[in-house]
């Protein structure tokens, strides 16, 4: 067995702890090459320092600032509706300093263009509002010779904010206040957001105590807000009032509500003249705005060509400086010292990358690569591919494997989809899942480059899990002989027939066997018979126990291989042996009885056998005896199970105490560990208790572990009955939807009812059986692996190998 080649996934890669001494002039290039390689996990030697106390904090800040500018460019390109080039044109590589200058120039240019565009847009909006007010407010005004024109024009041109002079110059006119009396009727015309009109009118009425006239009309055009770039509905208003004090109140209320007010001359001729001037100026501004937008889009397009490459470059540079900040200067301040973990197989690749960095940076001193010993446990690293990665993620979600312990994902690749299929078995539903999985696999090259939603990303990541789940579902569905709950004579004729030729109803008279059993799976004649449910219940319940005991035994056997690999003979003698004896003395024996009963066709009551094995082990079995010597065998197995419990509980804590006493009282001397592999010789043994051995703590821990296993052997076996329960539920739900929805609708001679029934059946199948039942079976299979299987051997208290790699950088790290 020792000569067998190692399995890639069975145990994690062997790791080595290395120290790198890097000259300052080649440090940046060396870390960059290591990031491209992605096989070294750096250890943070400055964990006690804040980010602002580290050596390369200024470079990190510069990269962060450049990332901010690039995000600004990306937002601007997105708002402009342009697409940044996914495949940038080839251009010579630029240094970080040159890129920093370029980005600053581009940012200043864009900010200036945005400011100019915002000013022009604001002027355009004001003129557009003025034009709308002239058109709408003119209908409210009635000419009267008793009012001075200058008074009605209210001393102003445009009152909104500080734009009086700008707008006056745009219109090339100046209106000066008149000297007429203060007692005449006056008005203010303007425009306000439609959502504020009611509150605005109510406030005016209350402030003026009803001494005013308020008229309004909706604007024909929506006006763009220059800040939010959203189109806003506006309403034109005219307020008639009298007196200087009333004017002051109205202006303050207008200012509070953000209303803009514009002068509207009562003279029709003057109105038309101003309208023509405003329209002319609007046309000019529109041309100017279009030209500005074209110029801005051209500048953004030139940035977009290189944006992807710039983002990648800045992201890499920031990652390099973040990593350099984890290194320490040596005492001479001429070299950087780094430490980290790497797989042993990567040693040659790492040394080649470091030599290349020395050569490319023209350094006179090479980089020193030194393997060291480490007291801490190494990280766990499994080399996976796109097929095995999803199964490894399922295991890692429970806990990352301890360094070099057995990896459950080797077996999960088969057992997980199989146990799912036992609960989901229906080859019609399996075909539907298979089609979905094949679509995802066929489009994986396209989907892999897209940004998917959370649900779709999860589905895409588990596409190969879904593939195996569907294939095993088809297999189990053929065994159960269910196609959307309907049985078919696929593998020949049924082994049963009616008692005579006049028999027409098998549900009441029963069937007789007339030929060899059905070739594969459940005979279709069981469907609809009186004994269908008892037969299938018995079959699936016993099958669940057999599968559960087999998987739990496999878990215990893996604990043996773990103990053997780590050289822990204590765990083999006082953990593996009593556990395998206890489990099989009870539930292994039950599995044997199930198989014998199936083979012999006995009518023995297995419930009675197992109960009285404990209550009256010496009592005669009578008609429940399945084979000769069953009673003495039961007594022996019961005694073995009783012996196995103290065997698990007592010896190991006392042996650990003796080893500790001998080691520290000088009667024996242990060899000092000289490498990190020596540290892994005896896990879970005296090594853990060398410095601070607390016997009571060790004994309590062992007692908890033993009680947990004994109780877990019963509860875990019962837990596997979920395979039977969910399989029965899935089958019965399928039957209900088929008989009570599809067949019921098909019984009507009406096309509409049939189509409605078919649609309801399709909906129930898709959303309940293919989505909810799939999720339910998936979660239950997950539970069986995490709890019932993995707790027999899997510690799951390791930590993942996370190398410094450019390939794993994401947008979140900008």
From TrEMBL:
Coiled-coil annotated residue ranges, if any: 89-123
Alphabetized UniProt keyword annotations: Coiled coil, Hydrogen ion transport, Ion transport, Membrane, Transmembrane, Transmembrane helix, Transport
Keyword Transmembrane helix appears in the UniProt entry: yes
Chief subcellular location: membrane
An annotated GO cellular component: proton-transporting V-type ATPase, V0 domain
Swiss-Prot/TrEMBL GO biological process terms: vacuolar acidification
Cellular localisation: Membrane
InterPro entries: V-ATPase_116kDa_su, V-type_ATPase_116kDa_su_euka
GO molecular function: ATPase binding; proton-transporting ATPase activity, rotational mechanism
Topology class, membrane: Multi-pass membrane protein
Ranges that cross the membrane: 416-441, 462-480, 543-563, 575-596, 633-650, 751-772
Family: Belongs to the V-ATPase 116 kDa subunit family.
Entry function: Essential component of the vacuolar proton pump (V-ATPase), a multimeric enzyme that catalyzes the translocation of protons across the membranes. Required for assembly and activity of the V-ATPase.
Protein name from the UniProt record: V-type proton ATPase subunit a
Organism: Carya illinoinensis
Lineage of the species this protein comes from: Eukaryota, Viridiplantae, Streptophyta, Embryophyta, Tracheophyta
């Amino acid at each position: 067995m020792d000569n067998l080649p190692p399995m890639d996934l069975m145990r994690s890669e062997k790791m080595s702890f290395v120290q790198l001494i890097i000259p300052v002039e080649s440090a940046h290039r060396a870390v960059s090459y290591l990031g491209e390689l992605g096989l070294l996990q750096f250890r943070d030697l400055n964990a006690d320092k804040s980010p602002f106390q580290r050596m390369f904090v200024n470079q990190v800040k510069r990269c962060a600032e450049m990332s901010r500018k690039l995000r600004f460019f990306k937002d601007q390109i997105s708002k402009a509706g342009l697409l940044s080039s996914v495949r940038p044109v080839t251009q010579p590589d630029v240094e970080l300093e040159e890129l920093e200058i370029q980005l600053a120039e581009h940012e200043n240019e864009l900010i200036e263009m945005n400011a100019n565009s915002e000013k022009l847009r604001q002027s355009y909006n004001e003129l557009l509002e003025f034009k709308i007010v002239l058109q709408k407010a003119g209908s409210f005004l009635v000419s009267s010779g008793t009012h001075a024109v200058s008074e009605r024009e209210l001393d102003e041109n445009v009152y909104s904010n500080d734009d009086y002079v700008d707008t006056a110059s745009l219109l090339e006119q100046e209106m000066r206040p008149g000297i007429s009396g203060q007692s005449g009727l006056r008005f203010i015309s303007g425009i306000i957001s439609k959502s504020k009109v009611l509150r605005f009118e109510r406030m005016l009425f209350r402030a003026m105590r009803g001494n005013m006239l308020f008229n309004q009309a909706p604007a024909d055009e929506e006006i763009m807000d220059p800040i939010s770039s959203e189109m806003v509905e506006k309403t034109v208003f005219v307020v008639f009032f009298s007196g200087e004090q009333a004017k002051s109140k109205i202006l303050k209320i207008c200012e509070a509500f953000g209303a803009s007010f514009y002068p509207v001359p009562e003279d029709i001729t003057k109105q038309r003249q101003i309208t023509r001037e405003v329209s002319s100026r609007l046309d000019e501004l529109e041309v100017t705005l279009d030209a500005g937008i074209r110029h801005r889009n051209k500048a953004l397009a030139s940035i977009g060509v290189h944006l992807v490459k710039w983002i990648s470059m800045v992201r890499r540079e920031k990652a390099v400086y973040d990593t350099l900040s984890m290194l320490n200067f040596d005492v001479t301040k001429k070299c950087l010292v780094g430490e980290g973990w790497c797989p042993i197989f990567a040693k040659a690749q790492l040394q080649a990358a470091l030599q290349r960095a020395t050569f490319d940076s023209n350094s006179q001193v090479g980089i020193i690569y030194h393997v060291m010993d480490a007291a801490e446990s190494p990280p766990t690293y499994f080399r996976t591919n796109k097929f095995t990665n999803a199964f490894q993620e399922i295991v890692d979600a429970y806990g990352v494997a301890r360094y070099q312990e057995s990896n459950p994902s080797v077996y999960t690749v088969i057992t997980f989809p199989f146990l799912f299929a036992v609960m989901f078995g229906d080859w019609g539903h399996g075909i539907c899942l298979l089609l979905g999985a094949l679509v995802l696999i066929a489009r994986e090259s396209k989907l892999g480059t897209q940004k998917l939603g959370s649900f779709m990303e999860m589905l895409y990541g588990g596409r190969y899990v879904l593939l195996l789940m569907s294939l095993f579902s088809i297999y189990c569905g053929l065994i159960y002989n269910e196609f959307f709950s309907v049985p078919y004579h696929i593998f020949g004729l049924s082994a049963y027939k009616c008692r005579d030729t006049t028999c027409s109803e098998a549900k009441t008279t029963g069937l007789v066997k007339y030929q060899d059993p059905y070739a594969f799976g459940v005979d279709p004649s069981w469907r609809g018979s009186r004994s269908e449910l008892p037969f299938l219940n018995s079959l699936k319940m016993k099958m669940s126990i057999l599968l559960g005991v087999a998987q739990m035994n496999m878990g215990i056997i893996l604990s043996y291989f773990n103990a053997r690999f780590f050289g822990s003979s204590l765990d083999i003698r006082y953990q593996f042996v009593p556990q395998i004896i206890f489990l099989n003395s009870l539930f292994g024996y039950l599995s044997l009885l199930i198989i014998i009963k199936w083979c012999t066709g006995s009518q023995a009551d297995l419930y009675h056998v197992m109960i009285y094995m404990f209550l009256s082990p010496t009592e005669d079995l009578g008609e429940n005896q399945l084979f000769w010597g069953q009673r003495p065998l039961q007594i022996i197995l019961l005694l073995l199970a009783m012996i196995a419990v103290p065997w698990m509980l007592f010896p190991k804590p006392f042996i650990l105490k003796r080893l500790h006493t001998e080691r520290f009282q000088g009667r024996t001397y242990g060899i000092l560990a000289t490498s990190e592999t020596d540290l892994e010789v005896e896990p879970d043994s005296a090594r853990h208790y060398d410095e601070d051995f607390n016997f009571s703590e060790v004994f309590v821990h062992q007692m908890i572990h033993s009680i947990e296993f004994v109780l877990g052997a019963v509860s875990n076996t019962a837990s596997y009955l979920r395979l039977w329960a969910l399989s029965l539920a899935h089958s019965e739900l399928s039957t209900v939807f088929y008989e009570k929805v599809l067949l019921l609708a098909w019984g009507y001679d009406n096309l509409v009812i049939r189509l409605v029934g078919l649609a309801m059946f399709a909906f129930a199948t898709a959303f309940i059986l293919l989505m909810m039942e799939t999720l339910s079976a998936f979660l239950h299979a997950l539970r069986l692996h995490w709890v019932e299987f993995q707790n027999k051997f899997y510690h799951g208290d390791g930590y993942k190998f996370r190398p410094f790699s450019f390939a794993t950088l994401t947008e979140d790290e900008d």
